[in-house]
Design brief:
With about 170 residues, the chain is mainly α. It is about 65% helix and about 5% strand. The radius of gyration is 17 Å and the shape is globular.
Length: about 170
């Protein structure tokens, strides 16, 4: 039923000069969803291939074809995605990847990234086993992640992403 509505709704909204679709996702996620769409890639493939160690998907409410089609229909009609919420519980690996992709990838940054990423993967594995595990607290207290955030915070965008992740 939702599919019928957004197929008709998005062109109608665009025709009425709506420019933004505000979603309950983080701002980094909104940008990544737009990037995936522009590259003609699949969100489902991104979720399953890139992040098999997660106990869920990195984009929270965007986990399947219907959500992807909804966002894509908005983007196809020139409507921008805006995220107004925190990044998802499962976003840590994706955030680390985003920060690394923005970095200069020096040997020190690469080593720090690998340590932070491996630590996060290990913590997600613990979270899968122990449902009451304090994953966010563990990630925020991690020296490996703190160190990577410090070395990756080389521009305003990276600092903004880091601040959003810490707030999440």
């Amino acid at each position: 039923m939702l599919k019928v509505h957004y197929i008709v709704l998005m062109p109608y909204l665009a025709n009425k000069n709506y420019k933004y679709l505000v979603l309950e996702i983080g701002t980094v996620t909104a940008g990544k969803l737009t990037f995936i769409h522009r590259k003609k890639e699949s969100l489902t493939a991104f979720n399953t291939i890139c992040y098999p160690s997660l106990n869920g998907v990195p984009f929270g409410f965007f986990q399947g074809k219907e959500e992807e089609q909804f966002a894509n229909r908005a983007l196809d009609n020139g409507i921008q995605l805006w995220g107004l919420d925190f990044e998802n519980y499962n976003s840590a690996l994706y955030i680390l990847d985003e920060l690394y992709s923005m970095s200069k990838k020096t040997p020190a940054i690469s080593e720090s990234y690998k340590k932070a990423y491996q630590f996060a993967v290990t913590e997600y594995q613990k979270d899968r086993v122990r449902k009451s595990y304090n994953l966010p607290g563990s990630l925020l207290r991690s020296e490996a992640i703190k160190s990577f955030f410090e070395i990756a915070a080389t521009n305003a965008r990276a600092r903004s992403i880091i601040a959003e992740q810490i707030a999440s």
